[in-house]
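Dear support,

We are seeing what looks like truncated structure output for some complexes. This example has two components. We would appreciate it if you could run it in full and send us the complete token output so we can diff it against ours.
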Amino acid sequence: MTENESPADIQLVAQLEGHDDRAWHVAWNPKRPILASCSADKTVRMYHYHSTSSTEGEGESKPVFSHSTTIPTGHAKTVRSIAWSPSGKTLATASFDSNIGIWAQEDEDDAEDLTGGNGEWECMSLLEGHETECKTVAYSAGGNLLASCSRDKTVWVWEVHPDYDFECMGVLMEHSQDVKCVAWHPTEEVLASASYDDTIKLYLDDPSEDWYCFATLAGHQSTVWSLAFSPDGRFLASGSDDFTVRIWERVQEHQWECVEVLEGHERSIYSVSWGKGKATSEGSLGWLASTGGDGLILVRELSITTPGESGGKSTLSDKVIARLPSAHDVADVNSVVWCPRDGYEDVFATAGDDGLVKVWKVHTN
Amino acid sequence: MAFSGALTLTDLNDFITPSQACIKPVEQTNKPDVKDPGAASTEIQVDSSGSYYEVTSDGTKQAGRRLETAQISLNDCLACSGCITSAESVLITMQSHTEVLNFLTNNPDRSSPTHKIPVLSISPQSLASLAASVSSSSSHPVDLSHVLHRVKAFCKEALGFEHVFDTTFARHIALLEHAREFQERKRGEGKLPMLASACPGWICYAEKTHAEMLPFISTTKSPQQVMGTLVKEWMGGKWGKKPDQIYHVTVMPCYDKKLEASRQDFYNEQYATRDVDCVITTGELELLMREKNWDLSMAVGGEDAPKRTLKLGSTSPPASSSMSPATPLGLGDGDEIELPELIAHPGTSSGSYLQSVISMAGDASSCELAVRTVRGADYEEYTVADRATGAVLFKGAKCYGFRNLQNVVRKVGRDAGVQVGRGAAGRMAAVRARGRGRKTTADGAAPEVDKGYDYVEVMACPGGCVNGGGQLRSPVQDKDAEGYPRDWAQNGVKVDDDSDTTVSGPKANWGSKEWTKKVEGAYWGGLPTPPPTPPNAEPGEPNGHRLRPSVNADLLASQVLFDLCKPTAVSSPTTSWHTNMDDEAEEWRRKFFRTQYRAVESEIIGLAVKW
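Here is the complete output from our reference environment:
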């Protein structure tokens, strides 16, 4: 493969309009063909999609999107981020009104309906506790925990109980500033948070005590906006206001070290997402997408070279496989999220300050 | 997120604004030179006389420039929905150990008409903290009564206090009134569950963020404020002194007690004085001792001698002490007022509020108390059930720490059907209620099989008051508590969850928990933490062979009630705290032993904020 030619390009699949204000975040339902987006207009919009059974051959089929419903949410301020539970039945909304909304469909049949979210979404619970703007919500991989973070500098861990009941398991006051993002490890109950204080903190539950911070990852020169664990859980990517993405490797069970600083953006990186991708090389760790204030989307393939018979250290390598400038024209891109569903590993969605949600597909040459 | 285009206020929420809710922005007439905005290179210091100086923050303490006094009163801070800490820091300056020293230095001689009687009251949790600290560095353990003796000696000899008390008698009164209030609420005069009111951190939090909880919070004064009433009103009356002729200092395990003492409810407008003039923490008392070179580990004369006055329950296990010989209640020779000392109230080291209402839940012979640990020792449920029928007569909980407090607020709000928190749009709440309704009908079961709480002992600190923020830190673990290295890995510490051998592993709060246990132990005088007692078993049967250990305290409490409320119908001290007096006297009771709460509304008006 030649160096000057990108091995892949990013093609627009769908442009989803409808938000009256900037679109902040998108979330793919892990089980059902639903894409949700949230906005400063306080609504959540849901889209159903299906693949056109293309006769032209596989890989060329593009999902087709149609708007299914809009939740007005009732949040008093911007809905900043959304998260699906692993079951795909519940959606959590984090709002600048400091609350978290928990949404589900009234009718169980609707929740089982794999074709879309046409049934009405109802607010089943409201989690209050943050004192100021809630920035991110995230469900743990097992779906039994929910984490949230806020400008009030705290990270909260909630336990999910039956009947949309929640119990507060911990209030972590480790950061010295606004907490921008929380992310769960893909298989273990390890929580990460990123902050305006330029650090990343990692937390664990001590079964006999409380949640506690076991590591602080320092290195970024400015605000850390976004976090994404690698699909295998051995790495963590962080996007920062210092225009770099850092890759942190788990070198021991409770020890993470920065192993790579990725450059390429000219403005703040607001969002990173690490999906499985469609591997083009041996030892692939998946595809890492990043975007931000420069409107540029970079897709990298990260891979690990396993040492030969002679031993030695395995090394991480990265390669930009696709780049797309001005993804939302002149507007900032606030988030990028890979679709987690099988068959859609090369599809991701973005949300921009222009109020648009766009769906893209990485087309390997 | 962009700064391109119009900068709207929406963008600002990603910035750290100090206290965007401050209702009184400081206006300075002598403005400092305008420098790079945002670069805070100077800080403001307050000296002992209350003057403000601007000094550079980089350590070079050049001659500070005296600033105009900012016109923010304490009440402004308390009325503000901004952060608790800013109000706290003001209070810490205004109620400090140096403030106490300043007062004592400037207090005119006894002969002067402007002389104020200095009185100090110390909480049993503070005594426990001191006892644990002294015991940890001495060969033989020191109990609370020894420490109280030594604190008295220090305060009287080294500082010049004229009277020193512990606050357990005030707590005894608070518990009596607390139980009385619970009975009122049981009768329907108020909401249930009743939530404890002694923790000022909880009160402050509830007033600012959970106004819907306020009707549930007990209106009974905390022991500190009852002590304030006792000293300024009752003792003052006995001494022939007006409230402003007494200077009352309390020693508390908690910084937020400073906030509590500053509440306008405890301010006497007529005499322009507070029931508690100054609150210092246990740590600040220790600081005073160090400054005066006082060694608390040294025994003082007479500390082992049996007390001639009412001394109840402190050295003997609860429920097994006998009655002391009767002495003239409360009043000793001359000005010397004797209060029962170190009255042990079985239950919790935070004040046994739950126990005081459990004791009233039913007859010990027919009832059974069950304790269920919900989450650790900080969240336990207590259920009193009828032995014969199994009917639940009472359900209460002990709930400590911010995390558990959140869950109690949620549970109480849910059970009582009130909207929790500031609330989002009404529509959202309506939808939410609908979701809930479906849940109960779908189950087919009766809604709320689970009986809600009747009472919750809420404390903001994990471990309760023995672990208060103003307590002494563990002498051994000092380093950990202060500068606990957050980054174990980068400091070369092997962080391995599985190895329990390294204390400094991820279980970082181990040290302080162990220390809290020691303080708890000291609080109970070396006895193991008393197990919860079944109803009525603790204070002894009133009609039985055993007298309540606190019977003298009860008698004195009635005397206090009689002296302060002046009931007309009875000519001698009532025999019980619970006796109903005439309306006017009951009005006095409310004035002296109850208080009130008010929601603190956010003062930020939309300011055309576009969200």
